[in-house]
Design brief:
29 strands, 44% helix, RNA-binding
RNA sequence: GGGAGCAUAGCUCAGCUGGUUCAGAGCAUCUGCCUUACAAGCAGAGGGUCCGCGGUUCGAACCCGUGUGCUCCCA
């Protein structure tokens, strides 16, 4: 006698109980053994962040895959961890220090700051791990890795030094993306471009006096209607505050309007500096006025033109975005204030001729959202070409498979084919400090320690005991996370160790499509470089999680639900269900709380099915062990469900292979809800007060177990709970580690019929039940009002095994087979079989006729189209024989149905 | 400006190698049920010019071209 089951499933209790049980049993820990490994490394979330819905989707997908592998004979290993998120975390720590302690970063030493940062990490770094546990993620907690762990730190430095020695890392002055708020360089990938309504300002540059004499004799013919005259040229700019950094004005060499000015000098407004007018085909004569001001320090294109024409560089901005001494005017003013001031001054000087609305694109820092400033700066870079080629090969050769391929392969290839060098230095403290050492003259060596640096310096420059200082900057976080699949197994710091040999390459990487370049491509590069092998076999890209209105979920919009709150409200299984059911592979998904409702309802459905089965068990069973009369009555139900289950299992296997988890879940959901609960359980349910056949109960428990096993990767808690409720279990018999195929169901061989035949018969049974119920409904028969059913069919044998089930499902007190139509009954035609319902109720012949006539019309139309096709000689000649055969069969079927309907109609009148 | 993807029921999406048992599912809607597991449920039902136009084909939601609309990536 089992304990009373609660009315509904209570997720909170089960979650707590089973997660700690699994941990106690150490089910999620993995050590190399003789089994095949199945390995996933988690895409490390930001250590001080929280999991948002995008993470929730990713982690759920990974958990499904890893649990499925664990139940399929693999040694499953899912490595958890987090990254240090240099910019974001440093910004948070700086903010905290100011707010809570009133400390400015510049008043702290590097060591002091790092102490605070690690304290911060210890305080908040656990949140994501707690969330992973609540979600049920079966990660190996013994393998938690953080990108600032000691070994990891060493790995990053080691790789830096190695790449430098290979000539793949260099230091140089380039135009980079500068974040004035975080005051650090960014990589190209960390800049987000957004469309902005800006303004285009038209500014006059006066032609310098001494070289302004008109010597060009074509001047007269063009001057009158052009935006330049003898004494000025007009440029259009979005950024008047950079005028002070202008070193030239550039026009198209063939532009008739300006040809006469090429080689002359113009006066830069505000600072009155004379600069040359140069010609270059880069300039688009149609844009603005066709004259371009050149500011090499603050625009990438200008920078390139500057290099080409050997122009000087005047950097008029400070790192914090204020104007520098070099600007001469507005010094110390913020760049946006300076813009206003410059406009004012230009207007006052009469040099501003026009303002125009202008749609443009501006770069924003992904981390701080500050407007990024293109800036000339000396930074460290990774040469990408060679690395990119290897990463490209890995994917084009099929070594790494991308899912869904059609969607992301092109993007991946395009980026790698057009890749630019990667700026990896960041002007921050939170991260791996660049192991470069400089003397006072700026000469440098790269070395792990100061001692080694001194030796190297001696070797390189013949300087004994130089005073060296280490580079102040740290490395881009992605420069550490690209080593992730290797260094979580100490593959860089301890090459060839047992773990890395066993687990690498990993099986699948699950991540968002937004970090395909940041991370995925670079991991493949690093893997090929250091292991000479791909880091993972499959990459599965999930879509972006959006809200109901299709907007990206973001903190600023406040439209991202809190994960723990969702779990609190619906239960972890329901949340997992909700996010997965709405996530077709690779597509963006619109997430709405209500999909968790569906998951919660599903939990309850399972729970109630359990209650029903337990009720039967508690009511006692028949004595016979096998094949009692009761069993024979319902035997078809078990036969049929076994076939359904096996069919569904192989479908689900296929879907797993294609990473179509949403579809797999739908298949299981429908198998459980529709096939098992709505059909099977109703078919085998004993009449009120009767005991259930013992063997039938055994079958039912077996089926139920298999269903739980099938569903377990998706909804681990409720399934584990039910698994244990179904039957008493020995210690250590848990669903989480139970191997698929162990549950007995598929070996029952309940019938000699083939799966297809059984399923076909099931379809007939279901169609008949549905049609008869519909007819009952239409004729206002009360659900419990019993009827007498007559069947007129050419093949009564087909109904033999299903007759008792049919009677039960349509509340027929008795069933008789007849040769002719039965008068004063309701006629229902299903296929070629005719059914007559006898009842006390008044019969509406009109409604019946309408329905039959409608059906007849459809069948006749159908038959016509089939006949037309078969009458087409070219069809019969060209189509495959089996297709033609199928059409012939359709024709025969349709004719049979039409005959049956017509006969019934004749009987009605 | 360059590239990629998408357009199927009110909504979110399936639909493999072209073949009327292929026009589907889940939500939502409507009707009837407090049937002894479940009203967070049960039993039924309705709902679509498969974005427009052209082409290939015996045959097109599916292949090709084109137009329109949306999304994303890159400059």
């Amino acid at each position: 006698m089992s304990t009373e089951l609660s009315k509904n499933f209570e997720p909170g209790i089960a979650e707590e109980k089973w997660y700690s049980h699994w941990l106690n049993k150490d089910y999620f820990s993995s050590r190399p053994d003789e089994r095949k490994p199945f390995t996933i490394v988690i895409p490390p979330p930001n250590v001080t962040g929280v999991l948002h819905m995008g993470h929730t989707l990713n982690e759920t997908v990974q958990d499904v895959l890893i649990r499925k592998a664990r139940m399929s004979g693999y040694n499953a290993c899912w490595v958890p961890g987090s990254d240090h998120a240099s910019i974001a975390t440093e910004a948070k720590v700086v903010q905290m220090l100011e707010k809570e302690k009133g400390i400015q970063k510049q008043n702290l030493s590097r060591e002091e700051f790092l102490k605070y940062a690690f304290e911060w990490k210890d305080k908040y770094g656990g949140i994501i791990y707690h969330q992973l546990k609540k979600l049920g993620c079966s990660v190996d907690w013994n393998r938690v890795t953080f990108t600032m762990d000691d070994h990891y730190y060493k790995a990053v430095i080691k790789v830096f030094i190695d790449l430098f020695n290979k000539g793949l890392i260099y230091r140089g002055a380039r135009i980079i993306n500068w974040d004035p708020q975080a005051q650090t360089a960014l990589s190209d990938e960390e800049v987000e471009y957004r469309d902005i309504q800006g303004k285009l300002y038209y500014v006059k540059y006066m032609v310098s006096g001494e070289s302004a004499e008109v010597t060009d004799n074509r001047e007269d013919s063009v001057a009158t209607h052009q935006p330049s005259s003898a004494n000025y040229i007009t440029i259009a700019t979005q950024r008047p505050e950079t005028i002070m950094g202008d070193v030239a004005v550039c026009v198209h060499p063939d532009d008739e309007r300006y040809k006469h000015l090429i080689g002359k000098k113009v006066i830069v407004p505000l600072v009155n500096r004379a600069v040359p007018v140069i010609a270059d085909e880069y300039v688009d004569p149609a844009f603005g006025t066709g004259a371009l001001k050149i500011t090499p320090a603050h625009d990438i294109n200008d920078y390139n033109l500057g290099l080409k024409h050997h122009l000087p560089i005047i950097d008029t901005l400070n790192p914090d975005g204020t104007l520098s001494e070099a600007a001469v005017v507005f010094v110390g003013m913020d760049r946006f204030e300076a813009r206003k001031a410059a406009i004012e001054k230009l207007r006052a000087d009469g040099l501003l001729t026009k303002e125009e609305e202008y749609q443009t694109r501006l770069g924003f820092s992904q981390r701080t959202n500050a407007v990024v400033e293109p800036r000339i700066s000396t930074q460290w870079f990774v040469k990408m070409r060679e690395l990119a080629d290897k990463a490209l090969d890995a994917v084009t050769s099929g070594e790494v498979k991308i899912h869904p391929e059609e969607r992301f392969l092109a993007t991946y290839k395009y980026w790698l084919e057009n890749v630019k060098d990667w700026c990896i230095s960041r002007q921050l403290w939170w991260g791996q400090r660049i192991p470069a050492w400089y003397d006072e003259d700026g000469r440098f060596v790269v070395a792990d320690t100061e001692e080694e640096a001194k030796e190297a310096f001696h070797a390189a420059f013949r300087v004994q005991d130089a005073t060296l200082t280490q580079d102040e900057d740290v490395l881009d976080t992605w420069f550490s996370s690209w080593l992730w699949p290797m260094e979580v197994f100490n593959g860089i710091t301890d090459p060839g160790n047992a773990d890395i040999r066993y687990y690498y390459p990993t099986s699948v990487l699950v991540t968002g499509q937004d970090i395909i370049f940041f991370w995925v491509a670079r991991m493949i590069m690093a893997g090929e470089e250091y292991m000479d092998e791909k880091p993972f076999e499959h990459v599965y890209f999930t879509g972006m999680v959006r809200d109901k209105q299709g907007r990206k979920m973001s903190k600023s919009l406040g439209n991202s639900p809190d994960l723990l709150d969702l779990i609190e409200r619906f239960g972890a299984d329901a949340v997992r269900f909700g996010i997965l059911i709405s996530a077709p592979a690779g597509n963006d998904l619109l997430f709405d709380d209500s999909s968790c409702d569906q998951g919660r309802n599903f939990n309850n459905k399972l729970w109630n099915a359990l209650k029903l089965v337990k009720m039967w068990e508690n009511a006692g069973t028949t004595e016979q062990e096998h094949r009692s009369e009761e069993f024979e009555k319902a035997a078809f139900a078990a036969t049929w469900f076994e076939a359904r289950l096996n069919r569904a299992k192989s479908q689900v296997e296929e879907l797993y292979k294609d990473f179509r988890l949403s579809e797999a879940l739908k298949t299981i959901y429908s198998l459980i809800w529709d096939d098992f609960c709505s059909w099977y359980l109703e078919w085998v349910k004993p009449p009120y007060g009767d005991k259930i056949d013992r063997y039938l109960l055994t079958c039912t428990l077996d089926f139920f177990e298999e269903l739980m096993q099938l569903l377990h990767p998706f909804m681990p808690f409720v399934t584990e709970e039910i698994y244990h409720q179904l039957r008493p279990r020995e210690e250590g018999d848990d669903l989480t580690i139970r191997q698929q195929g162990e549950v007995g169901g598929q070996h029952k061989k309940l019938s000699q019929l083939s799966t297809t035949e059984v399923l076909q018969r099931g379809d007939i049974l279901q169609d008949t039940i549905t049609s008869l119920r519909d007819s009952r409904n239409k004729h206002n028969l009360k659900p419990r009002e019993s009827i007498k059913l007559f069947i007129q069919t050419a093949s009564p044998a087909a109904f033999q095994s299903i007759e008792p089930l049919l009677a039960k499902q349509v509340a027929a007190s008795e069933i008789q087979f007849v040769e002719d139509a039965v008068p004063n009954t309701i006629t229902v035609v299903v296929g070629t079989h005719k059914f007559y319902i006898e009842t006390e109720q008044q019969i509406d012949a009109g409604a019946q006729r309408d329905k039959l006539e409608k059906e007849l019309e459809y069948q006749k139309g159908f038959l016509l189209s089939v006949e037309k096709k078969l009458g087409n000689e070219r069809f019969v000649q060209n189509a495959k024989p089996e297709v033609v055969e199928a059409e012939r069969k359709k024709k025969a079927d349709a004719e049979g149905k039409i005959r049956a309907i017509e006969e019934s109609l004749a009987n009605l009148s």
